[in-house]
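S1.2 Input.
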Amino acid sequence: MKEIRAYIEPFMLAKLTQALMEIPDFPGMSVSDCEGFGQEKIAHIQDFIPYIRKKRIEIFAPDELVDIIFNTVMTVANTHQLGAGKVYIINVEKSGHISSMKNLNYSNNQEADS
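S1.3 Output.
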């Protein structure tokens, strides 16, 4: 299982959500507001805006869906402008449902008791 974490322009969220929901067995996602800045250089210091608003998307997906989700985010959220966002794929060591106290094992698509 992997986490796909993306930072995108807020106005791209609806379009991206629709595209992701069309992926068979899409596992769902969390969305939150965030602010930050990258390494982009600015021409004049008076143009500097310390933090740019973005949407943070977190998707926890089985390995077999990671590539299609990653490619969908890269394609659909692309504004072709500097600051369009970033996407990361992160290994997930363990996960579980709090209410049932069961560990999740997405490597073979089954829940594992623990």
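S1.4 Remarks. The beta strands are 2-8, 30-36, 52-61, 85-91, 95-97, 102-105, 110-112.
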